[in-house]
Amino acid sequence: xxxxxxxxFEPATGAILWRGAIGDVDTxxxxxxxxxxxxxxxxxxxxxxxxxxxxxxMLSRASEFADRIARETGKPLWEARTEVEAVIAKVDxxxxxxxxxxxxxxxxxxxxxxxxxxxxxxxxxxVLGPYNFPAHLPNGHIVPALIAGNxxxxxxxxxxxATAELLVECYRAAGVPEGAVRLLIGGPAExxxxxxxxxxxxxxxxxxxxxxxxxxxxxAERIDRILALELGGNNPIVLWNPTDIxxxxxxxxxxxxxxxxxxxTAARRLIVEDGKQDAVLAELGKLVDRMIVGGPHDEPQPxxxxxxxNHAADSLQESFLGLMMKGGRPFRxxxxxxxxxxxxxxxxxxxxxxxxxxxxxxxxxxxxxxRVASFxxxxxxxxxxxxxxxxxxxxxxxxxxDRFWANxxxxxxxxxxxxxxxxxNAPFGGVGLSGNHRPSAYYAADYCAYPVVSSETxxxxxxxxxxxxxxxxxx
Length: 475
Ligand SMILES: NC(=O)c1ccc[n+]([C@@H]2O[C@H](COP(=O)([O-])OP(=O)(O)OC[C@H]3O[C@@H](n4cnc5c(N)ncnc54)[C@H](O)[C@@H]3O)[C@@H](O)[C@H]2O)c1
Ligand SMILES: O=CCC[C@H](NC(=O)CCC(=O)O)C(=O)O
Fold this sequence. Notes:
Blueprint: E1 5-9, E2 16-21, H1 25-41, H2 44-60, H3 62-73, H4 77-102, E3 105-107, E4 114-121, E5 124-128, H5 136-148, E6 151-155, H6 161-173, E7 181-183, H7 188-196, E8 202-206, H8 209-218, E9 226-230, E10 235-240, H9 245-257, E11 267-273, H10 277-290, H11 310-325, E12 329-332, E13 347-350, E14 366-372, H12 375-382, E15 390-395, H13 398-407, E16 412-415, E17 427-428, E18 440-441, H14 444-448, E19 449-456
Parallel strand pairs: 5-6, 5-8, 6-7, 8-9, 10-11, 10-15, 11-14, 13-14, 15-16
Antiparallel strand pairs: 1-2, 3-4, 4-19, 12-13, 17-18
Helix pairs in contact: 2-4, 2-5, 2-6, 3-4, 3-6, 4-5, 9-10
This protein binds nicotinamide-adenine-dinucleotide (NAD) and ligand L2THXQ4J.
The site of nicotinamide-adenine-dinucleotide (NAD) has 28 residues, from helix 7 and helix 8.
GO molecular function, one term: succinylglutamate-semialdehyde dehydrogenase activity
Keywords: Arginine metabolism, NAD, Oxidoreductase
Pfam family, one: Aldedh
C-alpha cells in the first residue's frame, strides 16, 4: 500500500470503497487561516442561512449519504439513515443553542453607559473525528463552530474518509467558502501534527480515551487554546427489581448491542442482584439469539453489522478470551461467523469471579455481567470505573432512582431507558476519563465561542468626582 495514501475498505465485504492522498497539514491550516476572518465577518444571519442550506443539501442527498455511511462503517442501512437524520437535525439545534447560550445580551449600566456581553469565534479550530459516527459526530462540532464564525480543519478517522469527503462536499454545496471548511485526509500522525500546529486556536476531539489523554498532555501548556474532549465509556446498567423482565431485556440488549456495541454510550457492564440473574439472562439470551448480524444492505435488514475491521474484531476476541482465562463464564460467546470478516455475534459473559477486571472500553458487542449482594454494592460496582459517560437503572421505585441519580458518576443518567441514544438537544459529555468537562451536542455552542464584555458610550465623559484637588488651589 502506498504510504502516502489512505484506503477505506467496506468492513462487510473487504472491498475497497475509497482511496486518496494524505493531505498536507500546513497547507490546510494556512488556507483556513486565510479564510476565517472573512467568514467571521459575515452577519450571523448569513452564516445561519448557509447552515440551513446545508441541511437542505443533506436532505436532497440523504439516500446517497446513508449508503456511503453504511458501506464505510458496515452499520445497517436503517441505522445509517438515522445518522443522516441526526446530521440534518443538528442545524436547527445548533442555531437554537447559539441563540440561547452565546447570543448577545444587554446589561444594565449606570449613567447611560451600555454594557453588553457578546461572543467571538476562536478563529481556526481543528476537528478530529471517530469512525463509528463518521458524519454525525464531526458535524456536531463543525456546524456550531461555523455558526459561531470559526473556520474548521476537519481530519476524519482514517477508517472513514469517504463519508467525510461527502460531508465536506455538502457544506460547500451549501455555500460555506472553501477556505472555511477544510478536509485533511490522514491518520493519527496527521491528527497529531494538526493538534500541535501553531496555526490553530482550538481542538474538538471525539475518540478514544487513550488518544484524548495524549492530546491533553500535548495541551498541558497550551492555555491559549480551547480543547474539547468527547471520549469513551465503560458504562453500567444496574438492574434492580424489574417489573417486566422482557422489557428490561430489550433495553439492555439495545444498550449493549446497537451499532455492534460501537457507541461511546453502549452498556458494557450489567450489574444484577445475585441469585436473581437467571430470568433476565434467559430473556436476554432469547433476544440475542434472534438478532441478525449481517451486511448493511442485507434483506431482511440486520440488527447489527460488523465491527469496523478485522483488527478490531481480533482484539475484541482476544479481550473476550482474556476475560474467560481470568475466570469469566460466557453465557453467549463472541463468535466470528465469517472467518476473514469482522462480523461478531453479541456476547454476554459473567465476570463476577474475575478479580482484576480491566477497566477498559471494549468497543464492540460484549456485555459483562456482575452479580452483587445489595443495591449499595451495585452502586459501588457501577462507579468502579475511571470513566463516567452514561449509566442506566432498570427497575426500582422512584426513591431508588433518586438514590441512583444522586450517587452515580456519569454525564448521562437514565431510568428504564437505554444507556445510548442520547438526545442532541441536551448537553452530551461525561466525567472522569470520558471527557474534560466540555460537553458537546447542545452545549457545543459553549466551546465554539468565547464571551466578551464591553462597556460602551457614544462619547467619553469626565466622571471623576472625588479624590481630585481643586484646580484653583494652585498646589
Ligand atoms: N464521547 C463521544 O461523543 C464519543 C462519540 C463517538 C466515539 N467516541 C469514542 O471514540 C472511540 C472510537 O473511535 P476511534 O477508534 O476512531 O478513536 P481514536 O481515538 O482511535 O481516533 C479518533 C481520531 O483521532 C485520530 N488520532 C488517533 N491517534 C491520534 C493522536 N495520537 N493524536 C491525534 N489524533 C489521533 C484518529 O486518526 C481519528 O481521527 C471510542 O473510544 C468511542 O467511545 C466517543
Ligand atoms: O458513540 C457515541 C455517541 C453516541 C450517541 N450520542 C449522541 O448522538 C449524542 C448527541 C449528539 O452528539 O448530538 C448515543 O448516545 O447513542
